[in-house]
């Protein structure tokens, strides 16, 4: 007892001094370890009077026990560090080829030195003062040198451990991207290209939750189905007009830079991080967080998250057997699985009468002639493309779709779907029942606005999607393009467009604005669709069947089909001649087909969509390569008294 | 003879070839060639090259983008009698770069000597000489083209 008090009194000033050092070190190094709590209570105790005898004993036991515990912890940590260091060194040496990681480890090494030294001091100091109140005189002197020795020998490994930790905490993937594009679809790729063209050596990072590099969607419901190649689901290649094949991927993998090498790339590049989802966006801090907790900061950010296909509620509630036999169609995997289904099933039903539903119906319908597959298409409207085409044209189109081998069920509202006798049974509201093997739901797209909440971005209540201005900007450093953007169109008003060309145009524009162009959406995007070899149209602007329309038609000849148009103008994807100057690559036109006049009245023509007497939308019906004129008329926004005169500008009787 | 019918709010006009032979009296507003909002071609109104022109495909944005830009700029601003004759070095550097990415820039015989391409002085022709043979940029072009649907 007395010896304890004596020892205590002797070491009290030392304890007090070391405790202040300890506290200072804690502030500097910011470590939180078992030693820290030891500092504070000891500092307290060093000034207070020591209590009675038994109290003193309890006190001594308590402190002794915590000292031993602390020391044990220290030794274990140091040993663990050493072990980790050895492992890390072997890993680093095997990685020594990658210069990037080497460069990274060096600076952290210098940064880590000072905190490490203070860490060592802190290690030594609490050990020393923890040793102070110990009962026996033995542990302190022994433990002190032991602690110091172990601290010393751990010094070298610790430095490296610190370096390793630094290298560990700095993954080889970039933590900062000057241009961050969220989403890896068409709009994102177009923006990447635009940025690279305008900002030399730009470093662009694309983050996508899909496993694939950026690809184009239209062939998934068109050209890929018409390919003769049995391995098309693997190659994903389709034939262009000139017989040359191309992949649906915008660029092969060699175009892109590895994400790890993006920061060090001398001339910059485009890197794609696949299979990662951005789950949180911090607009104030200019950074995002991924689903694997990685954080990436940015200078400029583009949100091009597209959307998720909608499904019918009755199907989602119908249970697993029904869901298993239902496809929503958007991605490469959906194409692959539907292709497989179409080869095995006897009957497929497509629910939805819009672009996607009709194109898939025609594609599958064409297959049905070879395989005996039954293809059914059902929708609530009166005819195919009922929300786009005026009624007379929608009806005409429906007849054409039927000719492609599709059983069309109009004015069909699905009431329930169930799985019965190994078939799906679709019950319609009017009592009709359809039995089928597989369902494809093509009932629209839900724009992906998952980041709106964390980012504090506005979502449009009328059209859905992020609300952006005419320059596609949501906030100073954030732009939105593609399907997810609800933007202000100077000519046509606020809208949201879900077409491929719009994704390209808006992506390009966003990329331009991200590099300082400050241009509004002005170049009107177009869209097009082919429903079989006889029906093809290009359209631009607002094409809504609820608007009054004026259609000017001529009698069609056999030359006025999409097939003939492609052969004539030498474009496989017809719209190539639209945006590209490569129409100069002239191909000797195929021998002109014999002129046959069709019975059908609506062979070819132009349809104007009017809003308060101004043309806001135009469909070129089986007439091609006239889009610039259509674009001009919409851009002018004039009130034309006689639309027949306007129609003359299109020369619909010519090819 | 043309005739007209009305189906609800939709008007349908059928016209013969003769009906449309007379020139249109519809008025269109004259375009301003310097309109900053408009999509520009390969050469901007101020004479510079528009690297973002869809006609260039991915040439200016790919891994050899900077080499391409240097070679093309040199050619574009060249005042020599044989345009671009002083740009051999830049074109060579560009070719070396492209050879490292054979699946992006397929190596074909005709594409070996870009500075010797005769087609006018226009860099556009230069570009298309390079591009028309090349699957890659025409790979690039349709994607920025309007292959669109719903």
Automatic annotation (TrEMBL), chain A:
Q: Which GO terms describe its biological process?
A: apoptotic process; mitochondrial respiratory chain complex assembly; positive regulation of programmed cell death
Limits of the FAD/NAD(P)-binding domain: 180-506
Alphabetical keyword list: Acetylation, Apoptosis, Cytoplasm, DNA-binding, FAD, Flavoprotein, Isopeptide bond, Membrane, Mitochondrion, Mitochondrion inner membrane, NAD, Nucleus, Oxidoreductase, Phosphoprotein, Transit peptide, Ubl conjugation
Composition bias type Low complexity, residue spans: 121-137
Q: SUPFAM superfamilies, per this entry?
A: FAD/NAD(P)-binding domain (SSF51905), FAD/NAD-linked reductases, dimerisation (C-terminal) domain (SSF55424)
Predominant localisation class: cytoplasm
**Cofactors, names only:** FAD
Residues covered by region (Disordered): 87-154, 559-588
User: Its GO CC terms?
Assistant: mitochondrial inner membrane; mitochondrial intermembrane space; nucleus; perinuclear region of cytoplasm
Q: Where in the cell is it found?
A: Cytoplasm, Perinuclear region; Mitochondrion inner membrane; Mitochondrion intermembrane space; Nucleus
Q: Kindly give the Pfam families that the UniProt entry links to this protein.
A: AIF_C, Pyr_redox_2
Recorded catalytic reaction(s): these are: A + NADH + H(+) = AH2 + NAD(+)
Mitochondrial apoptosis-inducing factor C-terminal domain boundaries: 510-636
Query: Single GO molecular-function term?
Result: protein dimerization activity
Outline what the protein does. Answer: Functions both as NADH oxidoreductase and as regulator of apoptosis. In response to apoptotic stimuli, it is released from the mitochondrion intermembrane space into the cytosol and to the nucleus, where it functions as a proapoptotic factor in a caspase-independent pathway. Release into the cytoplasm is mediated upon binding to poly-ADP-ribose chains. The soluble form (AIFsol) found in the nucleus induces 'parthanatos' i.e. caspase-independent fragmentation of chromosomal DNA. Binds to DNA in a sequence-independent manner.
According to its UniProt record, which protein family does this protein belong to? Belongs to the FAD-dependent oxidoreductase family.
Q: How does it assemble?
A: Monomer (oxidized form). Homodimer (reduced form). Upon reduction with NADH, undergoes dimerization and forms tight, long-lived FADH2-NAD charge transfer complexes (CTC) resistant to oxidation. Also dimerizes with isoform 3 preventing its release from mitochondria. Interacts with XIAP/BIRC4. Interacts (via N-terminus) with EIF3G (via C-terminus). Interacts with PRELID1. Interacts with CHCHD4; the interaction increases in presence of NADH.
Protein's UniProt name: Apoptosis-inducing factor 1, mitochondrial
From TrEMBL, chain B:
> Which parts of the sequence belong to the CHCH domain?
64-100
User: Keywords of this protein's UniProt record, alphabetized?
Assistant: Disulfide bond, Mitochondrion, Oxidoreductase, Protein transport, Redox-active center, Translocation, Transport
| GO BP field | mitochondrial respiratory chain complex assembly; protein import into mitochondrial intermembrane space
Which molecular-function annotations from GO does this UniProt entry contain? protein-disulfide reductase activity
| Disordered: annotated segments | 101-150
Which InterPro entries does this UniProt record tie to the protein? CHCH, CHCHD4
Q: Where is the composition biased (Low complexity)?
A: 114-150
GO cellular-component terms in the record?
Answer: mitochondrial intermembrane space
Q: Where in the cell is it found?
A: Mitochondrion intermembrane space
What is the protein name for this chain?
Coiled-coil-helix-coiled-coil-helix domain containing 4a
């Amino acid at each position: 007892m007395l010896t304890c008090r004596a020892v205590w009194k002797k070491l009290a000033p030392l304890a007090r001094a070391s405790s202040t050092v300890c506290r200072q070190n804690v502030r500097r190094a910011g470590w939180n370890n078992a030693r820290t709590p030891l500092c504070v209570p000891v500092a307290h105790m060093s000034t207070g009077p020591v209590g009675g005898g038994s109290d003193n004993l309890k006190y001594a036991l308590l402190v002794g026990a915590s000292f031993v515990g602390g020391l044990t912890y220290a030794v274990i940590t140091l040993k663990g560090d050493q072990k980790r260091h050895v492992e890390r060194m072997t890993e680093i040496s095997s990685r020594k080829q990658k210069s990037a990681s080497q460069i990274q480890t060096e600076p952290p090494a210098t940064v880590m030195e000072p905190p490490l030294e203070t860490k060592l001091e802190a290690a030594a100091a609490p050990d020393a003062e923890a040793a102070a109140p110990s009962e026996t005189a033995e542990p302190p002197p022994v433990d002190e040198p032991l602690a110091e020795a172990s601290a010393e020998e751990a010094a070298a490994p610790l430095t490296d451990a610190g370096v390793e930790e630094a290298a560990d905490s700095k993954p080889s993937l970039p933590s900062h991207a000057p241009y961050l594009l969220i989403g890896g679809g068409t709009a994102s790729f177009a923006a990447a290209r635009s940025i690279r063209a305008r900002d030399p050596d730009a470093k662009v990072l694309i983050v996508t939750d899909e496993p694939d590099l950026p690809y184009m969607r239209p062939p998934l419901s068109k050209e890929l189905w018409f390919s003769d190649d049995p391995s098309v689901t693997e190659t994903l290649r389709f034939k262009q007009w000139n017989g040359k094949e191309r992949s649906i991927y915008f660029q092969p993998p060699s175009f892109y830079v590895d994400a790890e090498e993006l920061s060090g790339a001398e001339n910059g590049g485009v890197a794609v991080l696949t299979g990662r989802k951005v789950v949180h966006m911090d607009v104030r801090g200019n950074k995002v967080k991924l689903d694997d907790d990685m954080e990436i900061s940015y200078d400029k950010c583009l949100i091009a998250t597209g959307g998720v296909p909608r499904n019918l509620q009755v199907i989602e509630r119908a249970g697993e057997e029904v869901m298993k036999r239902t496809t929503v169609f958007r991605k490469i995997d959906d194409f692959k699985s539907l292709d497989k289904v179409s080869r095995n099933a006897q009957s497929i039903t497509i629910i939805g009468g819009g672009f996607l539903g009709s194109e898939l119906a025609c594609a599958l319908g064409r297959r049905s002639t070879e395989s005996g597959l039954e293809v059914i298409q059902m929708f609530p409207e009166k005819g195919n493309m009922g929300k786009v085409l005026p009624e007379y044209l929608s009806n005409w189109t429906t007849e054409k779709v039927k000719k492609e081998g599709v059983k069309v069920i109009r004015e069909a509202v699905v009431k329930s779907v169930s799985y019965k006798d190994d078939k799906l049974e679709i019950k319609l509201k009017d009592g009709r029942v359809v039995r089928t093997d597989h369902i494809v739901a093509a009932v629209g797209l839900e724009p992906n606005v998952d980041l709106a909440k964390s980012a504090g971005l506005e979502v449009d209540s009328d059209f859905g999607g992020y609300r952006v201005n005419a320059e596609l900007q949501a906030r100073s450093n954030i732009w939105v393009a593609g399907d997810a953007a609800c933007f202000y169109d100077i000519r046509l008003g606020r809208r949201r467009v879900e077409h491929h060309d719009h994704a390209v145009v808006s992506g390009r524009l966003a990329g331009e604005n991200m590099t300082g162009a400050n241009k509004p959406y002005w170049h009107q995007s177009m869209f097009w669709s082919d429903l079989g070899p006889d029906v093809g149209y290009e359209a631009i602007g607002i094409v809504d069947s609820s608007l009054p329309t004026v259609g000017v038609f001529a009698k069609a000849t056999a030359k006025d089909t999409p097939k003939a148009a492609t052969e004539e103008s030498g474009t496989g994807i017809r719209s190539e001649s639209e945006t590209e100057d490569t129409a100069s690559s002239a191909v000797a036109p195929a021998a002109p087909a014999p002129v046959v006049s069709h019975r059908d009245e609506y062979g070819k023509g132009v349809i104007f969509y009017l809003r308060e007497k101004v043309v806001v939308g135009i469909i070129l019906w089986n007439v091609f390569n006239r889009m610039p004129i259509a674009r001009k008329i919409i851009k002018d926004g004039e009130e034309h008294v006689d639309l027949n005169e306007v129609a003359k500008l299109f020369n619909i009787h010519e090819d | 003879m043309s005739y007209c019918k009305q189906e609800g709010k939709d008007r349908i006009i059928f016209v013969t070839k003769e009906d449309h032979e007379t020139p249109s009296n519809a008025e269109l507003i004259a375009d301003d060639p310097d309109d900053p909002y408009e999509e520009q071609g390969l050469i901007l109104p101020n004479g510079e090259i528009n690297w973002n022109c869809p006609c260039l495909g991915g040439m200016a944005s790919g891994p050899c983008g900077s080499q391409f830009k240097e070679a093309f700029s040199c050619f574009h601003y060249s005042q020599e009698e044989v345009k671009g004759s002083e740009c051999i070095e830049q074109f060579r550097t560009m070719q070396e770069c492209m050879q490292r990415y054979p699946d992006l820039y397929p190596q074909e015989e005709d594409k070996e000597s870009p500075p010797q391409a005769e087609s006018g002085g226009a860099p556009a022709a230069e570009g298309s000489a390079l591009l028309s043979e090349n699957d890659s940029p025409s790979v690039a072009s349709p994607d920025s083209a309007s292959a669109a649907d719903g």
